[in-house]
Amino acid sequence: MTAERTKPEFDAPAGPAPEELEIHDIILGEGTEAKPGATVTIHYAGVDYDSGEEFDSSWNRGEAAQFPLSMLIKGWQEGIPGMKVGGRRRLTIPPELAYGPAGSGHFLGGKTLIFIIDLIDTV
């Protein structure tokens, strides 16, 4: 089951960073589908598109995270709905759907981000 999966490995992206959200299902789930505005329980890891450097991972903390989608960056609000429990999805998120342009005050501002997300539960 999803909670027992190991932390994902990231393949180095090829070419320039995309200008639009890219959604790629790595494993299709068979459980309940996440809806817009749902609260999700997930495991995730995120890396910078250009450097490949990891900036966050729930696996490193040893526990899944739970969030209302409405509280997350736009790339997650648009990229997680439609996912089913048990699934693993890669989101490649341009700056305007992540933390905004460089100089926005967030250390990830101006960066394209790649997340791999395992959906454990949704309500």
From TrEMBL:
Stretches assigned to coiled coil: none
PROSITE patterns given in the database record: FKBP_PPIASE
GO molecular function: peptidyl-prolyl cis-trans isomerase activity
Keyword check for Acetylation: no
EC numbers, comma separated: 5.2.1.8
Keywords, comma-separated and alphabetical: Isomerase, Rotamase
Annotated PPIase FKBP-type domain residues: 37-123
InterPro entries: PPIase_dom_sf, PPIase_FKBP_dom
The keyword Cytoplasm appears for this protein: no
Catalytic activity from the UniProt record: [protein]-peptidylproline (omega=180) = [protein]-peptidylproline (omega=0)
Pfam families tied to this protein: FKBP_C
Top-level EC class: isomerase
Protein family (similarity comment): Belongs to the FKBP-type PPIase family.
PANTHER family (UniProt xref): 39 KDA FK506-BINDING NUCLEAR PROTEIN, FKBP-TYPE PEPTIDYL-PROLYL CIS-TRANS ISOMERASE FKPA
Name assigned to this protein: Peptidyl-prolyl cis-trans isomerase
